[in-house]
Structure formats: structure tokens, C-alpha cells
Design brief:
Length: 277
């Protein structure tokens, strides 16, 4: 496994590779990331992981400075799983002030975008840069960040980028909590409570499968239940899987998404619902 920190070195290393699978991360790796690395081997003879905490996707009051940076530990976890780790510094990714940005689609102003203005512009910009740098045939992203995955798929399709985007299933703890680097911010009591977010989404899924179709009532009931237990809810939403528009009567493939805070920790989760079966 090679650790590379500059664009020039990476391009030289990959110049002779005909089959590259790429997994972008912000580091502080957990089993969800490692599962993506295992999957990547199916798609490329050379597997590249990137570790870069992207300042463009953090707001002024968010946790960019506090976001855990654990490069040495991450490299140990990746040994034997990937061929190349690309870990550039901020000055390598942004050698000059970034004045050109990728404008994400309108859905980027809803859901997480409503709570985090500018986040998806920063995310889309760095993903575009990374895909141009690595030039993989396949790139893998986790489904836990469902809206992000949707926006990346649109970016690649509409900008005619020659890369296939694969969505990896969310990896969970035994109690159902979606794995996330931010879970370590939770206190012991908050960690015990955190599973209620997934339980809430699973309850909504069961109601939908049982015939409930008043999506607005289901969303509001979930928000009230979370709020009553001390959560600060950004949103609970039932959307169409294909375009993330608000679900309508007759839609068959839905996704229930939520973002909420316990204390200072913002947690995301989602669950797909297939009404066609």
C-alpha cells in the first residue's frame, strides 16, 4: 500500500492503471468505510482511497477544526484492502483560493441543504476535483448520506463524467445505529438514546407497508416523538427514491430520511421502502 500526498505523484502512480476503483473519505474510518473498500476490489484491479477533510463543505459554526483526523490509524486499517491512499493537505487540493464551484441541483437546498447552506456546493466541488484527479472507472459512496449520493449521481450524469457510481449499503451497529465518524462525539447516555432514530424510521416503514399513505402525518408524528425525547430535529421526510421529490400517492419506491441532533451531535439515517412488493 502506498501513501501519496500530491496530485502529481498520484497521477504518475495511476498512469498505467487500466482499472481503478475509488472510495473518497474524510478519514476517521469505521467498518462502513472498510466495507466500501472490500466492495471496491470487485470493480477495479487498483483500489484507491482518499482521506481529505474538505473545508468547503463545513459551515462557519460546524466542526471542521474538531473533526477527527486519524491518518496513521486509518492507514493501518486500510493496509491489505487498498493499493493507494491519497491524503492531500488543504493547500494541495486548493493551491489557490477556490473561485470556481460546482452548483448542485435544486434538491441541494432541501433536507440537509436547508440546515447546512453551502454544504452540497462544497461537497460537489471536492468530489468533482477528486474524480478528475483520480479518474477512476468506478467510485463508491455510502447510502447513509442518501442525499449526497443522489447529488453525486446527478453530477456525474449531467457533466458526462466517465465513472460509474456505486452506492454501498449502510453499515450499522448491532442495535441498529448507522455507523458514523461523528458517533464518537456522543456521551454514553446519548449513545444509548441514538438508536431511537433508526427505530423511528423502521416504525414509519412498517406503517407505510401496512397501507399508511398520509405522509405528512407520519412525518409530524415522528418529529413529535423525537422532540419529546430531547432530540432537535432538522427533518423527517418521506421522499421518492428516484429524484428525492416529496412522495405522492402512487409512488412505489420511497425513502424515509431523517437528520436530528442529540446534544451537539448531528445524526443522519434513512431507510428505503419498496411498496411494489
Amino acid at each position: 500500500m502506498e501513501l501519496i500526498s500530491t496530485v502529481a505523484q498520484l497521477r504518475a502512480r495511476l498512469s498505467a492503471e487500466a482499472s481503478v476503483a475509488f472510495v473518497p473519505t474524510m478519514g476517521n474510518l469505521h467498518q462502513g468505510h472498510l466495507d466500501l473498500m472490500h466492495q471496491a476490489r470487485r470493480y477495479g484491479r487498483c483500489v484507491v482511497a482518499s482521506i481529505f477533510v474538505n473545508p468547503l463543505q463545513f459551515g462557519p459554526n460546524e466542526d471542521f477544526d474538531q473533526y477527527p483526523r486519524t491518518l496513521d490509524d486509518d492507514c493501518e486499517k486500510l493496509r491489505g484492502l487498498v493499493d493507494v491512499v491519497f491524503a492531500p493537505g488543504v493547500n494541495e487540493m486548493y493551491p489557490a483560493s477556490q473561485t470556481v464551484f460546482v452548483a448542485p441541483p435544486p434538491i441541494a437546498s432541501e433536507l440537509c441543504g436547508a440546515a447546512r447552506p453551502g454544504h452540497f456546493q462544497g461537497m460537489a466541488t471536492v468530489v468533482c476535483k477528486l474524480l478528475n484527479i483520480v479518474q477512476p472507472q468506478v467510485a463508491l459512496f455510502g447510502k447513509k448520506d442518501y442525499q449526497q449520493l443522489h447529488i453525486i449521481r446527478q453530477l456525474v450524469a449531467q457533466l458526462n463524467m466517465p465513472v460509474e457510481i456505486i452506492g454501498g449499503e449502510t453499515v450499522r451497529a448491532i442495535d441498529g445505529l448507522a455507523l458514523s465518524s461523528r458517533n464518537q462525539y456522543l456521551s454514553e447516555a446519548e449513545r444509548a438514546e441514538a438508536v431511537f432514530l433508526n427505530q423511528t424510521l423502521r416504525s414509519m416503514r412498517e406503517q407505510l407497508l401496512s397501507g399508511a399513505r398520509d405522509f405528512g402525518i407520519l412525518e409530524q408524528e415522528a418529529i413529535r416523538a423525537l422532540t419529546a425525547r430531547g432530540w432537535s430535529v432538522d427533518y423527517v421526510a418521506i421522499r421518492n427514491q428516484s429524484d428525492l421529490k416529496r412522495a405522492c400517492a402512487g409512488d412505489q419506491y420511497l425513502v424515509v430520511l431523517a437528520a436530528a441532533r442529540l446534544g451537539k451531535t448531528r445524526l443522519l439515517d434513512n431507510i428505503e421502502v419498496n411498496l411494489h412488493a
